[in-house]
Amino acid sequence: MARANSTGLRRDLELLEVLASPEARRRDGLGVVRVAALAGRETTQVSRALATLCDAGLVDRDEETRAYRLGWRLYTLAAQTLEAHLDAVAKPFLLQVCDQVQETTHLCVLRGLDVVTVATQSQPHAFRVMWEGIPVAAPSTSAGRVLISEWPTEQVREIFTSERLSAGEGRCALTTTEQLLDELAAIRSRGYATVDEEFDVGLVGCSAPVRDARGRIVAAINIGAPKARLGSRLDAAGMLTAHYAGKMSEVLAQDG
């Protein structure tokens, strides 16, 4: 019985992986037939399995399109586990960046195609906008660009089409896929990202990647401030952010 249950769990995980694929994200879900084809299983079996996962909150079903996507409970469980750990590890590094730059510092993660702030450190007098928990389209911010900077080129092309970018989603200043790819290459080269009044007038920011034990980017340390205060030292702040993001990555590597 234990072996049978284990096999069933593996099969369910395969379906979740299909629903986490770039195609599923781009199409905002997949129908039963497509999920079955990608998983290499019979449609009736997949339909029953998806219904069970849906009842558990691990999968959501759109009543109009009948497409399935990853569910709220799965995101909640994953986010609570990873983000709580990242928050705990990040605190001393956010504090050091904040103290040295004298500006508000954030820890950001990727949720789906959006970037979300999960922790903030600020000086009592510092400029601060309450971003915690608010999703913003990844290409629109320095943190979001860092978080997708090592995605495969084809994945970026498939998801962030020029049509999508030029539609102004998230007030992104990059309006073509090629512009985004060039920016991601520049981020990989220098080790941090900057934005200069791209997301909002008068606001600049910089971000650097935090990596886990396997070298994957799992978060970004970010600084956001008025251009009048940070603009002239934006690159210096970016390098400082990259330094402490690297230090945080070293701690996460030890956890692995």
UniProtKB/TrEMBL annotation:
Transmembrane segments: none annotated. It holds the Pfam family IclR_C. Residues 73-256 form the IclR-ED domain. One of its GO terms (biological process) is negative regulation of DNA-templated transcription. GO terms for molecular function: DNA binding; DNA-binding transcription factor activity. Keywords: DNA-binding, Transcription, Transcription regulation. Residues 6-72 form the HTH iclR-type domain. This is IclR family transcriptional regulator. It comes from Nocardioides mesophilus.
